[in-house]
Q: What sequence folds into this?
């Protein structure tokens, strides 16, 4: 086997160079945040923007949401994209209940977050009345940049593990409100204030 | 004994991998069983009527075909592994063996085990279903002149 | 939250499909399609219902609101015998937003925001039909400035392209060609970027308003449109090779979801579904609006009325739209983009500081809204899915008294049971995709 | 300009029903009795496609212009027909009294009106006899009331200000 450059070949002595150690919990949190699959819960216009975000131009496959699973058994994040009508509310609750743990909810668009411009008999005024919401993405429809920002915020929360403690304790959502990013033609840089977690800092 | 070490090592690794994934999911995944999770998933609708137990027979026929060919492969596998030593005679013996299987398959298909729906329907539209039909040949362009009546008034 | 026992129920009682023994003979005939002005002999030939099918032979399954291939929240109850679809009943209403009730609360100026969210694949066509109906009520439909009329044509044709591109994407993905989804979206992003540059938003633009359009075209719009028009034909040829020349694609679409001409007419379908059966009915040509009579284009008409025809019609309609947009580019005049009638158009921002009268007009139009003389009118244009109509009743006030949008997908969905009968469940997916319904305009 | 010019006696008639003009579009006003007969004549007269069937609730309308001889009722069924061959359109407006909101169904003439009539039944409560499957189509099954009636409130929820919790 060729000699690998500048690696101390002193047998067991070089152990710490060749192995990364870390807590299993960090590994699990990292893997959960880096490969979370979305459940297709596209309802109205926001669903078209959600598909656009999955499309080649914005491509959330870069963030681990490679594919949108239709069945709740294989999905981690349910993105409620669009207005929820009174007839659809029990269906949303049923799909949310049938999702496997751990699961998170992104309420995409103002209609899902608060009923939006349709304050009338037919629309549920806010999805947080029936499912615990973690991230609210504002916009009508939210631009793909805003949705990616929402997904990344949720990934950051998953990676910190803070969101799991909250859900275990009270089952409530994290209720994070993010700011909208208007569609741009040039790339967007968003700082999440990501603290350097311990084991990646070596 | 030495030559069986890899086999032994592989089985241990296999068992280990299987057990590890079970133990890991039991330890790490949060468990919140609920009746909705046990209920069958029917596109978000709470099922009210029980699905019938009896399924049409055409499903079983296709399953049988699969099992038949599966077993055939199991028999061919030992031959395939040491094909060099066995020589031509074994090849023809295997060939005869698979022809017998193939005849059974032809019989079942001829009896119509595989045409469930569209084949019958496509026969009804025989000229519509053709390999040469392209996306520009199947349409006709109707300009202003192609109007059913001939007055051109807008 | 402890695990909530699902005490709520989601079945819709009488709206759902019931076993054949429980419903009236007339409804069975409706679902089997024999009531479509067909003679009894034709119904008999349509493929006999298994006479002795006792109930446990067939299974009623739910292709429900949350399903990858129902293009939104359409729910289909299918009665299957093995893989064969015997009966199908679409159940809709899962996206009912009460838009017609909301429309009665918004002034005519705000109405565009409500209407544009109905058919969210071609929002500009919704706004166009709403604005034309309001202009006809106001009686100003002939003195809209030329530039506004040509801009409306440009935007509605580009919108038709982006909607048909999404049809190609979702049609491909529904039938398994997942890469088609990526290609379709790649082109659609180009058109959406142009829309964002012109109207400020990628979707739900509220750009076409009663009296003209909201703003003028930004500088450099012409070569943006030209880059789109030059890029598209090559890509469409690519799709043709990718899809039409592929035997699996033809096998999945040809002979599937067949509908005859009188069935389509009796069901009131319009757009690519009606044209696929050979009836040459396209509102842009038969009842021209805007300047469609001065533009040279062909109407694409199918011949067999199956899913392959509808796919071929839509892919060729993109080519026709390209042709139209080239002619619109040449004919685009200069001039103002909105009618100069002070009653309808708010004054430009700069004039408000100078003249008191402009301030009053601005204030009146945006708070109370302009009054529309009493009357009722029905205007219909050709949207990518068919004839979209807007029926407005006004009582002389600033808000429409009653607004009803005739949604093409709402009527086209009724053709689903007739197309699916006798096919496999996989064909059901191909048929839904070939109808290309948008549930926002179905449930309104 | 008054949109409906009232021509001197006798008024223009089509198949025995009063004809009027609204913004240049032909409108026929049959009574409920003449409704099905007129529709059959129109269907045979070339109107092969029923584009749209909807209703309007004129409870709080300030006063609509109807040709005389038609007494204004609360509900009004509006049907838009299209003739493919001659390429023209016609609109049929039928008055339906509030006391007996019932009218004949057009399902046997144009099967395409089946879903539209269900929507009118769901939204206005006008029932169609002869309709194969008159059930709600848009609202949930257990919904009470008919939302598009003028006396049905829009159901706006006053915006409850929830303290920002983030």
A:
């Amino acid at each position: 086997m060729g000699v690998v450059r500048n690696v101390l070949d002193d047998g067991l002595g070089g152990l710490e160079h060749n192995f990364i150690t870390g807590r299993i919990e960090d590994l699990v949190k990292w893997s959960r945040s880096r490969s979370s699959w979305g459940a297709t819960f596209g309802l109205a216009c926001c669903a078209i923007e959600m598909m656009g975000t999955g499309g080649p131009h914005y491509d959330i496959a870069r963030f681990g949401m490679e594919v949108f699973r239709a069945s709740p058994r294989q999905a981690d994040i349910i993105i409620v994209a669009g207005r929820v009508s009174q007839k659809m509310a029990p269906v949303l609750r049923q799909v949310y209940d049938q999702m496997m743990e751990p699961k998170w909810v992104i309420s995409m668009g103002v209609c899902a977050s608060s009923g939006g411009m349709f304050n009338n008999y037919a629309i549920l005024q806010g999805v947080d009345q029936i499912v615990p919401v973690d991230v609210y993405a504002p916009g009508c429809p939210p631009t793909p940049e805003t949705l990616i920002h929402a997904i990344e915020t949720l990934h950051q929360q998953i990676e910190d593990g803070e969101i799991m403690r909250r859900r275990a304790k009270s089952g409530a959502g994290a209720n994070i409100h993010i700011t909208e990013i208007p569609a741009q033609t040039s790339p967007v840089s968003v700082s999440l204030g990501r603290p350097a977690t311990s084991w990646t800092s070596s | 004994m030495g030559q069986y070490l890899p086999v032994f090592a592989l089985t241990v690794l296999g068992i280990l991998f299987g057990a590890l994934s079970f133990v890991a999911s039991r330890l790490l995944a949060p468990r919140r069983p609920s009746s909705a999770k046990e209920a069958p998933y029917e596109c978000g609708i709470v099922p009210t009527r029980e699905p019938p137990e009896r399924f049409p027979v055409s499903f079983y026929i296709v399953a049988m075909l699969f099992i038949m060919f599966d077993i055939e492969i199991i028999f061919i596998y030992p031959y395939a592994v040491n094909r060099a030593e066995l020589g031509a005679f074994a090849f023809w013996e295997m060939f005869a063996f698979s022809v017998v299987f193939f005849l059974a398959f032809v019989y079942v298909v001829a009896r119509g085990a595989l045409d469930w729906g569209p084949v019958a329907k496509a026969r009804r539209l025989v000229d519509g279903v053709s390999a040469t039909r392209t996306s520009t040949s199947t349409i006709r362009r109707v300009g202003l002149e192609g109007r059913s009546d001939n007055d051109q008034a807008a | 939250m402890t695990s909530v026992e699902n005490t709520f129920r989601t079945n819709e009682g009488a709206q759902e499909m019931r076993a054949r023994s429980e419903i009236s003979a007339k409804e069975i005939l409706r679902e089997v399609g024999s009531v479509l002005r067909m003679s009894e002999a034709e119904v008999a030939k349509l493929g006999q219902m298994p006479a002795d099918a006792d109930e446990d032979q067939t299974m009623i399954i739910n292709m429900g609101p949350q399903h990858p291939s129902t293009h939104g929240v359409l729910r289909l109850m299918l009665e299957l015998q093995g893989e064969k679809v015997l009966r199908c009943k679409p159940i809709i209403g899962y996206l009912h937003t009460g838009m017609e009730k909301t429309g009665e609360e918004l002034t005519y100026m705000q109405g565009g925001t409500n209407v544009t969210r109905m058919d969210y694949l071609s929002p500009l066509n919704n706004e166009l039909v709403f604005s034309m109906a309001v202009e006809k009520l106001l009686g100003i439909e002939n003195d809209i400035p030329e530039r506004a009329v040509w801009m409306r044509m440009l935007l509605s044709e580009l919108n038709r392209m982006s909607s048909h591109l999404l049809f190609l994407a979702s049609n491909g993905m529904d039938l398994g060609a997942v890469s088609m989804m990526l290609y379709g979206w790649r082109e659609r992003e180009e058109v959406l970027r142009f829309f964002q540059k012109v109207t400020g938003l990628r979707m739900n633009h509220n750009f076409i308003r009663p009296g003209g359009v909201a703003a003028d075209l930004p500088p450099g719009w012409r070569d943006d449109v030209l880059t789109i028009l030059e890029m598209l034909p090559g890509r469409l040829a690519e799709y043709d090779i990718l899809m039409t020349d592929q035997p699996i694609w033809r096998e999945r679409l040809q002979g599937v979801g067949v509908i005859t001409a009188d069935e389509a007419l009796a069901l009131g379908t319009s757009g690519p579904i009606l044209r696929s059966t050979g009836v040459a009915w396209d509102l842009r040509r038969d009842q021209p609006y805007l300047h469609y009579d001065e533009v040279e284009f062909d109407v694409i008409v199918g011949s067999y009325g199956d899913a392959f025809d509808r796919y071929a019609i839509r892919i060729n309609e993109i080519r026709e739209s390209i042709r139209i947009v080239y002619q619109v580019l040449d004919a685009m005049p200069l001039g103002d983009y909105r009618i100069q009638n002070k009653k309808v158009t708010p004054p430009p921002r700069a004039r408000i500081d100078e003249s008191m009268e402009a301030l009053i007009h601005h204030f009146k139009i945006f708070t109370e809204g302009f009054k529309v003389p009493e009357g009722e009118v029905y205007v219909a244009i050709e949207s990518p899915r068919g004839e979209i109509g807007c029926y407005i009743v006004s009582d002389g006030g600033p808000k429409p008294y009653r607004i009803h949008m005739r949604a093409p997908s709402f009527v086209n969905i009724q053709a689903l049971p007739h197309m699916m009968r006798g096919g496999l469940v996989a064909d059901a997916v191909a048929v839904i995709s070939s109808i290309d319904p948008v549930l926002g305009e179905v449930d309104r | 300009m008054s949109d409906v010019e009232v021509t001197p006696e006798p008024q223009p008639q089509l198949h025995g029903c009063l004809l009027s003009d609204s913004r240049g579009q032909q409108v026929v006003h049959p009574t409920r009795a003449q409704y099905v007969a007129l529709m059959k004549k129109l269907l045979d007269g070339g109107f092969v496609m029923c584009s749209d069937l909807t209703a309007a609730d004129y409870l709080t309308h300030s006063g609509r212009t109807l040709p005389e001889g038609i007494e204004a009722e609360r509900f009004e069924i509006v049907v838009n027909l299209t003739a493919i061959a001659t390429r023209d359109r016609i609109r049929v407006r039928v008055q339906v009294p509030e006391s007996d909101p019932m009218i004949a169904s057009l399902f046997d003439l144009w099967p395409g009106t089946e879903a539209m009539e269900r929507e009118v039944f769901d939204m206005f409560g006008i029932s169609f006899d002869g309709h194969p499957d008159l059930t709600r189509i848009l609202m949930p099954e257990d919904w009470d009331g008919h939302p598009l009636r003028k006396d049905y409130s829009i159901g706006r929820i006053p915006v409850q200000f929830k303290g920002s919790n983030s």
Observations:
- The CA atoms of residues 371 and 398 of chain C lie 4 Å apart.
